[in-house]
Amino acid sequence: MRAAPHVQLPHQSAGLDRIGVRYRVHLVPTRPTSKHSEIAILFFFLCCREEALCEGRLGKEPASTHCEMASSALFSFRLCQEKTPDPFYSILGVGFGGNRIAEFQALVAPPKPPSPPPTPKPVVTAPSNFNTVPNFEQMHREVLDILPLGAGATARLGKVGLKTIQELIRGKFLRKSSSLQIEYVDEKGPAAAQRAFDALTTNSAVKTEETSKGIVRSAEIEGGGTVTVRDFSTGKPPRPTIEVRQPGEMPVKKRF
Amino acid sequence: MSDLFTSLTQAGFQEQFLSVHDRIFSGQEESDIPDEYCLPFVDRHWERVLLESGVLNLSAENLRALTIAAEKMGDRQIIITDSETRPPHQMPIIATWNEKTLGQASSTLLAHFKNHTFGQSATWGLVYYWDEFSILGGTPVFMEAFLEAAGGRQRVKDRFLSFAAADWWTSVEPPTQVKILKSVGWSFGDVAL
């Protein structure tokens, strides 16, 4: 069985907040080594291009637990990979050391199937998974550089802008009472909800909370308040929802 | 964050309030089966009623009634804690019975999760289900005080049913609504004409 790959972070982490620096991500087929514990990971989350968030973790823990957090990211990455055959992953953010947070994005390209040999050699029998399961060397070669967002500029993560939130909550509400506004948006499904939340929080610090039914991601809003996204609800079928709560305003739920 | 309510740490909550909390709440609301998730209290004999929204967004009428009943039980402060997170109780707060206080807390992350509200008397509890409804339950003395302050049992029921008939479908599909109503002995046919 092929070992699941994970992202190994660069050791020269001090340079991560320098503008324009390019970073390389390596896929390695092992669990985290002791090297991970030397890296001060504040948070680390991965996202499939077409699927929901794999893992988010805002580091509140002291440095001694950083290795554990790296393991957590690894675990989720593996889960996600099992969920979807699409091998594109986005690394949405990684924070290193102290309060310095660099935000950047990386694409891990899908491994190319090996080229067919120029002349068939019937005497060689390929294993049954030869064309579908890449080996480590193939995957390693396909890894792309991490490109800082915003034309090479790193961004300090903050809160979701008020204007962005106002644009989100503008809509035709099915329910508009004194206590809540609910709207069904045209796009449906968890992936649409997660995409909308990602777009909303491009430059924001995102936290995740685990529940028994899934993950809830959240970000703070400029001037107070919080916005969350979840793929599930009490009822069935589950209704992926972005919820906005601001001081003095009625809560807003966008159902996807 | 606020002068109006105090955030508690998970450890602080566990030390001060967990034993009271666990005497009230069964944790059944995490079940997927309506018959089970509508039994969120340890004491299954407690009368239960449905309220629109959670404690942080209660209507003024329900909030007033809840305040009166809780204060009658000696609860001048309430504890609100997240019950849905794993592990739970990551963002509990302690607050006074005050609309402004609760309004302030309603924009925090706590309000985005199913949550439990209770007082130290351990005579009542309110479970917010995130899908725009709560179940309030308590001892006979507490419930009598609440229902009296709220204008009577029928009025509490009517208020919820009129909300359910008009708007609840945006959060909970009708078959589940019927089950939730039935769990407290109500039905859509109970609406006073």
Written account of the structure:
The complex is a heterodimer of chains A (256) and B (193). In chain A, strand 6 (89-96) and strand 7 (101-102) form a beta hairpin. Helices cover 19% and strands 28% of the residues of chain A. In chain A, the strands form four sheets. Chain A has a seven-stranded mixed β-sheet, covered by helices on one side. Chain A has 256 residues and is an alpha+beta fold. Mean pLDDT of chain A is 54; it is low at 1-112 and 121-156. Chain B is an alpha+beta fold. Helix content of chain B is 38%, strand content 18%. Chain B is built from eight helices and seven strands. Chain B has a seven-stranded antiparallel β-sheet. In chain B, strand 5 and strand 6 (124-128) form a beta hairpin. In chain B, helix 4 runs antiparallel to helix 6. Chain B starts with a strand and ends in a 10-residue tail after the last helix. In chain B, 49% of the residues are buried. At the A-B interface, strand 12 of A face loops of B.
Brief descriptors of the model:
heterodimer, A: 256 residues, alpha+beta, seven-stranded mixed sheet, four-stranded antiparallel sheet, 5 helices, 16 strands, 28% strand, globular, disordered N terminus, B: 193 residues, seven-stranded antiparallel sheet, 8 helices, 7 strands, 18% strand
Tell me the helix content of chain A.
Answer: 10-25%
Q: Which geometry of chain B do the CA atoms define?
A: globular
Which residue ranges of chain B are poorly predicted, with pLDDT under 50 across at least 5 consecutive positions? none
Structural class of chain B: alpha+beta
**SSE class of chain A:** alpha+beta
Number of H/I helices of chain A: 5
Number of helical regions of chain B: 8
**Span between N and C termini of chain B?**
46 Å
Taken as a percent bin, the fraction of beta residues of chain A is 25-35%
Radius of gyration of chain B: 16 Å
Write down the oligomeric state: heterodimer
- Indicate the radius of gyration of chain A in whole angstroms: 21 Å
Number of strands of chain B: 7
Question: What string, H for helix and E for strand, traces the elements of chain B in order?
Answer: EHHHEHEEHEEEHHH
Low-confidence stretches of chain A: 1-112, 121-156
Strand order of the largest sheet of chain B: 1-4-3-5-6-7-2
Main sheet makeup of chain B: 7 strands, antiparallel
- Round the mean pLDDT of chain A to the nearest integer and report it: 54
Main sheet summary of chain A: 7 strands, mixed
